Amino acid sequence: MMCKVLIFGCIAAVILMTAAYGVPLEKTKLSPAEKKKCLEASITDLALLKHIDNNFLDFYTPNDKQECNQTTLACFLKELKVLEQDVEENDKQHVINIGKNLQDFKDPDFSSPTCKKCESNEKKKFPEFHQEMTSFLQSL
What we know:
mainly alpha
């Protein structure tokens, strides 16, 4: 009986070590070429959303591009989550792709008391939001 317990214990340990082997503890940073590729893919996906006619929702639309670009990015990502809930199924994947591609641009340690919060930005309809986000991504 003890032998079976010991054998199953060893097998469980090997399985756990095998599953964990090679998994980085920290997220690896993207190279500049990979970042450029993600940014271009996001701009392309965003262009495919230009046709959306969403006149019933307002989006907080930041226009700080230089010194507060981390805050601006976080705001656009937050508003994309709102958009994801209200677009048709065929556009939803583009919104999800943009969010995933831009996650690597976020700096979790960024903090600036001089940058305004997302909710203090002007609310705009989707066409203006789309234009501001496109302009922001092109400036990155």
